[in-house]
Amino acid sequence: MAKKKEISVEEKLRALYDLQLIDSRIDQIRNVRGELPLEVEDLEDEVAGLNTRISNLNQDAANLETDINNKKLAIEESNGLMKKYDEQQKKVRNNREFDSLSKEIEYQDLEIQLAEKRILEFKAKIAQKTELIDATQEKLDKQEKHLGHKKAELEAILKETEKEEELLIQKSDEFSKTLDAHLFSAYTRIRTKVKNGLAVVAIERGASGGSYFTIPPQVQLEIANRKKITIDEHSGRILVDAALAEEEKAKMDTFFS
After folding, report:
1. Are residues 71 and 140 in the same domain?
2. CA distance 24 to 102
3. Are both 61 and 129 inside the same structural domain?
4. Nearest-angstrom CA–CA distance, 198 and 192
5. For residues 208 and 235, is the Cβ–Cβ distance under 8 A?
């Protein structure tokens, strides 16, 4: 197996800074989307929840309608029994049988009254369910419309940026493979810890980019010589000299355009 070509510290620094510029561009693209993907996801969950609620309310109303029909059947049955007992009373031979049938008729009458009361209660519950369904449907319509707008907004952004992002991710992967595993691991670790994902920064006016702590002239000279990887003791970032940064920015600007 051929031995991997050893690259100089300067080449590593250039590769690191190029990688940083690419990853920062990916960050910028994703920042344009902002919270839109999460907003869309939240709205989709809310719409699904509202649909489930409407479905459950409709099922509740259907169950109540079934209960009403069952009570109507019970009323018909009680009316039939009352008619039957009334006919039997006309044929009884003694008061005991007459009184017994009267109690049965009275009982069936009470059953009818109770069933009618339950029907009124069920109808009131259906009315409440219907109000809830209408209110929930109104909210659902509103949120579905809102979701449609958000999805269209997200799709427009994705359409505009997805090809560029795919290419940049591919390039980021290519550049990361030019670095040894230890250096890439250090870059990734720093990038996840620092603000704005900037793991590699250029020296600006004697300090590391985004920092107010002045770098000693001797250290600045070492950085400019590009003979070693230097970590800023204050920000924890990898430092490169301004000239190298400008050269790589110009090169990457051409690539981005």
Report:
1. yes
2. 92
3. yes
4. 9
5. yes
